[in-house]
Amino acid sequence: MTKKSWTPLVLLFLCPVSLEMARADQLLLKNGDRVSGAIVKMDGKSLTVKTDALGTVTVAWDQVTAIQSDGPLHVVLPGGETVRATLATSEEALELKEAGRKLPLGEVVAIRNAEEQAAYERLLHPPWTRLWAGSATLGFAGTQGNAQTRTFTVGFTAARTTEADKTSLHFQAIKASALINRASVGTAQAVRGGWGYGRTIASRLLVNAFNDYEYDRFQDLDLRFVLGGGLGFSIWKGERSRLEVLAGGAYNREKFSPAAPESAFSRSSAEAYWGDDASYRLNQATSLVQSFRMFNNLSRTGDYRINFDVGANTRLLKWLTWTLNLSDRYLSSPVVGRKKNDILYTVGIGISFTR
Fold first, then answer.
1. Kind of pairing, strands 64-68 and 25-29?
2. I need a labelling partner for 253 at 20 to 30 A (CA). Which of 220, 237, 332, 344 fits?
3. Among positive and negative, which fits the CA dihedral 339, 290, 194, 149?
C-alpha cells in the first residue's frame, strides 16, 4: 500500500480523537500546564475537573489563567445572579458567550455543570419532607447456660441539611438484664434523645437551638430536660470535613428518684455551654462524626455536665450500614452513691436511608 493510500486512513483514525479533544473543556494554568476534561464546579477557591487520564483533578482557582468550555455552564456573578453560558477567556477576562458579558476571573463566585446546579437548586427551597438522611440500628445479644443474659440496643440518627440550615434528630436506648440466683435483675437501662437546629446567618456565623431528653435508671435519673440555644462559628468547611465551635445558654431540669422514696428530688438550673461539632469523610463509604458540649452550672457554681458523642458509619450496600456510636455523659454532682460517668455504646448493622 502506497504512502498516499495510508493518508485517508490515518486522517479517519485521528478525526474522532481530534473531535474528542475539541469537545473537552480546556484550562491553562500559570505554570503553563494544560488540563483537558469536563468542568464539574468552582467554589471560589478551587476548580474541579474530571479527566480521562488522571480522574478527578482539583486545581486552585487563582492558578487558572485561561478557560474554555465546550458547552454551557452555570456561572454565579458577584451580585448573586446565575448565568448559563459557554465560557472563554480573552484579555484576562471571562467571556460568557451567550450572555454577551465579560468579567475578571477573580470576580467569578462559582461555576457549576448541569448536575451540580441541579443539586444546588435542590438545596435552596426544598419541602420539609425532603433531604433527610440517616440510619437506624437494632441489636440484641444474649447468653444461655451457666450465665443467662439479655441485651437490647437501638439507635437512630437523621439529619436534613440545606444551603441555609440543618436539622438533626438522635435517639439511643439500651436495656440489659441477667439471671442471678434464678431472679432476673436489670443491669442497664437508659434512653437518650433529642433534636437540634442550626441556621447560617452570615458566611461563617450561625445560630442554633436544641432540646435534649435523658433517662437513666441506674443513675436514678427519671428525666433530664434541657432546652438551649446560642451562636456558632464555622472554622472549617471542606469537601470532606467540617468543624464548628458553639457557645450559648441552656435551661436544665432534672428529676431523680433514689431507692428511698423520701429521697426523691428535682432541681432546675441555668447553664452556659460551649463545645464543637465535627465530621470527617474518610472515603466514599466511611464517615466520622463527633460532638462535644460542656455545661457549666450558673445556678450552682462549680457543678457541670459534659456530653461527648462520637460515631462511625460505613456503607456496605446502598441501604446497609455498619455503625458504631458512643455516647458519654459526665455529671459532677450525681445522686449519692452513684458514679459520675455513664457511657452508652452501640455497634452493629443498620439500615441507612435518604429522602
1. antiparallel
2. 344
3. negative
